[in-house]
Design a protein that fits this description.
The structure holds two protein chains of two kinds.
Chain A (H helix, E strand, L loop, with lengths): L1 H17 L3 H5 L2 E13 L8 E11 L1 H11 L12 E11 L3 E2 L5 E14 L7 E14 L2 E11 L14
Chain B lengths: L14 H4 L2 E5 L2 E7 L5 H7 L4 H10 L2 H7 L4 E8 L3 E6 L12 E11 L2 E9 L6 H14 L5 H17 L2 H5 L27 E4 L4 H14 L23
Antiparallel strand pairs in B: 1-2, 1-7, 2-3, 3-4, 4-5, 5-6
Chain lengths: ~170, ~240
């Protein structure tokens, strides 16, 4: 059941983002959401590398995500005007054991793979962004809400034009 | 909406930028914002510096620096050192209903070819700053000028568009007009600030004073016929040569 509900949540979320319905996407976020995407670095096996602990592409709370949305839905966000054509592919959804949160609620750890296809303007080659997302979904009376997301992107140097997208 | 319209900054209309001074000294220069008072403590508090950081700044700043931020009310914003190092200093709101928090970013512009530039962006913070400040300042940087920063996104979009448009035939046949701030009969529309406590010369109001200075430095280096330091005003933009000409 949790597997079905979590998968449905991620599918609906991806569709809202693909369609640019960002205000509705905000509605799926918990008020205490933490949204992080650390910088990935390339390093030899065994040396210090992988995720750069102290540097992020995103380290957001509800306020800053809402500000980003407010800008994207307005008329002067040149980065997304004309908007990208986007398609998110969410796969390999794994739902862990439910855990009780401090306030008596229930949270589900959910891990998924994401592939974003993004095409902008007419002739620019499209971008792909591949990532793993490690989420915590909070079970609330209103339904599932995204409480935290850690995005582990698979490129050290992102080849997408900018990060005016949510992953 | 633009980053200004969503209320990320204290100065939604941009007039504090217009009232700021544009300055250039030797091989570098930049922009300043105009602050609301003539008191250094109040001005630094206005842009979000906590008292303990202000106390440390005042302990090490020169009289001219104190005068610049205090009595004259100018604070450094964007600055570039020739040829390719810049800094950004700004103060967005990082929490709902909260006050602004400043951040500083160092930026290195590394050319990868005629139409491609790699930008390295660092977040810089006072090592002695309180932990809450370091955290909030980092978030301020990420929101506006980090890799996902809202300013960064729009700036990069403009720069890449300008680069592709400049490749065209028409663009190659016209000269860049860099005359903003110059008077039709010669000289500048406004005289330089007389009691500017900062280095070099400064002008208030919008103008391309800094761009002319910067491109003049560049022109000196790439034009063997022009003696160093001898720069015409305004600096003409070198006409692109058509293939075969």
């Amino acid at each position: 059941m949790a597997q079905v509900e979590a998968t449905r949540f991620l599918t609906v979320e991806a569709r809202l983002l693909d369609l640019g319905r960002y205000q509705e996407w905000l509605g799926l976020l918990h008020a205490d959401v933490r949204y992080r995407m650390p910088v990935q670095v390339t390093a030899a096996r065994g040396s210090v590398g992988g995720l750069l602990g102290a540097m992020d592409h995103f380290d957001e709370d509800h306020y800053s995500l809402a500000k980003r949305v407010q800008r994207l839905v307005g008329s002067h966000a040149w980065t997304e005007d004309p908007p990208s054509r986007m398609r998110r592919f969410v796969t390999n959804v794994w739902v862990g054991e439910a855990v009780e949160s401090g306030g008596g609620g229930v949270e589900w750890p959910v891990v998924s793979n994401l592939l974003l296809f993004r095409s902008r303007s007419d002739v620019r080659p499209p971008d792909l962004v591949s990532a793993e997302r490690s989420d915590v979904l909070a079970v609330t009376p209103a339904g599932l809400r995204l409480l935290s997301r850690l995005i582990t992107v698979d490129e050290a140097v992102l080849r997408t034009q900018n990060l005016a997208v949510f992953l | 909406m633009s980053v200004v319209e969503i209320g990320l900054f204290l100065e939604p209309k941009g007039h504090k930028r217009k009232e700021g001074a544009l300055w250039f000294a030797g091989v570098g220069g930049g922009t300043t914002y105009k602050l609301p008072t003539t008191d250094v403590d109040e001005n630094l508090a206005y842009i979000g510096y906590p008292p303990e950081m202000v106390a440390r700044m005042k302990a090490v700043w020169s009289e001219a620096q104190l005068d610049l931020v205090g009595r004259k009310g100018f604070v450094v914003s964007a600055t570039t050192v020739f040829p390719n190092l810049s800094l950004v200093h700004n103060w967005p709101k990082v929490h709902r209903g909260g006050h602004v928090v400043p951040f500083i970013s160092l930026r290195l512009w590394q050319p990868l070819g005629p139409t491609s530039t790699e930008v390295s962006s660092w977040f810089v913070v006072d090592r002695l700053a309180p932990d809450w400040y370091k955290e909030a300042s980092y978030r301020a940087y990420l929101m506006s000028f980090g890799t996902s920063g809202m300013f960064e996104q729009d700036d990069v979009e403009n720069w890449t568009s300008m680069t592709s448009v400049a490749k065209g035939r028409l663009a190659a046949s016209v000269e860049l007009d860099g005359s903003m701030g110059l008077a039709p009969g010669g000289g500048t529309l406004r005289p330089p600030l007389e009691d500017w406590p900062g280095p070099g010369t400064a002008h208030v109001g919008y103008g391309e004073y800094n761009q002319r200075q910067y491109l003049g430095l560049w022109a000196d280096l790439v034009s063997p016929s022009r003696p160093p330091g001898c720069r015409p005003r305004p600096t003409p933009w070198p006409r692109s040569r058509r293939p075969g000409s």
